[in-house]
Amino acid sequence: MTDVKVGDPIILVDNAGFEDTLEKGMLGWANSVTHVPGDGAYVFFMPREGKEMYVTQAYKVEVDEEAKAAGITLNEHTIAKG
Question: Range of 34's domain?
Fold first, then answer.
């Protein structure tokens, strides 16, 4: 896993536990990142086309390096409006 930071464009690479809701390969945002001592890092995954958030282990996402290199980040212009 690349070091995920708040606002990064990310890709869900493991949808275990969310099979009925999220698809592997889904694009989204790191809305928040938290670290639980002794348990690891977690990312609040927000799908690109929605405003819901799903908390998942950080190893289940990766930074979308292509989008990040293009300067795409979560902000008032890229957040879903619906």
Answer: 9-69
Is residue 21 a part of any domain in this protein? yes
Tell me the whole-structure pTM to 2 decimals. Answer: 0.90
Instruction: Convert the pLDDT of each residue in 20-60 to its tens digit.
Output: 999 999 999 999 999 999 999 999 999 999 889 999 999 99
When divided into structural domains, the chain yields a total of 1
| Residue type for position 27 | L
Region at 71 (left for phi over 0; alpha for psi -120 to 50; beta for the rest)? left
**Any idea of the CA torsion for 6, 60, 28, 66, to the nearest 10 degrees?**
80
Which stretches within 1-82 are classed as H helix?
65-69
